[in-house]
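WARN  no MSA supplied for this record, continuing single-sequence
INFO  ligand: adenosine-5'-triphosphate
INFO  echoing inputs
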Amino acid sequence: MPTPETAPSKPSNFLRQTIEADLASGALEGRHFAGTPGDAQQLALAPLDRARIRTRFPPEPNGYLHIGHAKSICLNFGLAADYGGVCHLRFDDTNPEKEDQEYVEAIRDAVRWLGFDWVSDGVSHEYFASDYFDLMWRAACALIDAGLAYVDEQSAEDMRRNRGTLTEPGVDSPWRDRPAADSLRRFEEMRAGRHAEGSMVLRARIDMASPNLNLRDPALYRIRFARHHRTGDTWCVYPMYTFAHPIEDALERITHSICTLEFEDQRPFYDWLLQHLAQLGLLEAPLPRQYEFARLNLSSVLTSKRKLAQLVDEGHVAGWDDPRLPTIAGLRRRGYTPAAIRLFAERIGVSKSDSWIDYSVLEGALRDDLDPLAARAMAVLDPVPLHLSNWDEIVGAGRLEACQAPLHPHAPERGQRSFQLGPRVWIERGDFAFDPPKGFFRLYPGGRVRLKYGYVIECTGAERNADGSVREVHARIVPDTKSGTPGAAAVKVKGVITWVGADDGLAAEVRLYDRLFVKDQPDAGGADFLQALNPHSLRVVQAWVEPSLASAEPGVSFQFERHGYFVADARDHRAARLVFNRSVGLRDGR
Ligand code: ATP
Ligand code: MG
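INFO  complex generated
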């Protein structure tokens, strides 16, 4: 674990400053913890915590993680790593209806893939909030005992009305001053399944006139006859998120509980709850503290698990790992690398005010990561045949010319790729024009270009189909211009085009992905985001690619020269059927 002295210098932010101040003042000292969460009594038996700080990433296992979660993962795991701490992976599974084991596994997978680990010094720091249901229950009983909580039997409707508004204080519930013993008995009955859902809740007893609505006797427990994916039917009362989360943090000895800005108004309750439970002897001081940062809003994508689930469930995309989705699984299949996502997280930083990040920032991070790494290859995505009419004279009938190209132009040590040039090659339809616009330096009757890594050629014309489209382009080789041969550079041309040989080129399916939505903020103001779906977000083309791609492994990225970065599809690509996904173009296309 790097200590602060050896940690790589990263731009400071308010969280780093807070942590550094806490470490300097000794505010975090005296915490007992050895990997097993517990209350004050249990933790007192553990040694002093060796981690200098503890953070946590606390997803609810109700969907696949998205790029917003990636920001939180990079932040929490990154801070822990930088300051000699540990970050916990905690499944916040207190809401039985929507949660599932499938999501637990997908989340583990995503965090690991991003390059982070919750095992530290041989201790796994993976936790489930549902493992704390007993302790939470005891905490609730202790609050009732101390006159700090009560069972309220008002109807949901009355409770809502009596809560008041921002300008009017709330009205005390008629059950607010009932004896503790009475509330305890009722609370036991709730647990025993003797009351209907919605008939009563446990509430904190704070202040119905508080200007902060979250302190107007917030609900702590509700009745839900729902099967939980881990605890089964053991419980029919479940803690509210706002009650459960601070307790989870305290039991795990979290020092810095970092959440998004929506929770700022919950912080007074977070502190109220933990301070009272510490006074009651249930929790050990020093207590965790909550800090808020701005969530990631990324243009032209949705960052809500619920809305992403709708896209998947209604079949607007092909699954959680559809390459058009901003899920980590989708980004991965699209060709994003863990390093690119970490770079993105670093570039956007953390702040305390909400803002929008343009999608091009994410794409820029991917290009910057792949450029020095990805092997180059040629591909023709919109093919039209080109015939070299003087091939037999210049090269010889039936002969092919071997061509060489570097795997990476800036890393000659990585070696060469080779392919064959013959009388027939595939070129891009857009590289030929009968009537070239001004400044068009590619093929047109009379125009000269270099076939990259091959000869300079001069266009002599083209044949058309009945519908006017080009059927075949004709050209002649300009002698003595083969790349890599002496004097090849003597003939100057303004254009260089990419191509694939008809003799050794391989057929490939290429999936050209574009943004899923045509609007920058598809769900702004509650808008129906389905109306903003981009009908052209996926275009599948039959392409030709150079033979070096025969050995492309699924999940490996390439730069197709002049086109952008492409990845061999992790699901569908195989030697007998090449399938590539476009990850990102070479430059920002918008
Ligand atoms: P969703 O609405 O998509 O389900 P959530 O916040 O409810 O998001 P959780 O599983 O509760 O999802 O989130 C786990 C963690 O990820 C939380 O700590 C939350 O703050 C963080 N997180 C979620 N979305 C974003 C985002 N867009 N930007 C930054 N952090 C996020
Ligand atoms: Mg949530």
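The pocket of magnesium ion (ligand 2) is lined by residues 60 (CB under 6 Å).
INFO  checksum written, moving to next record
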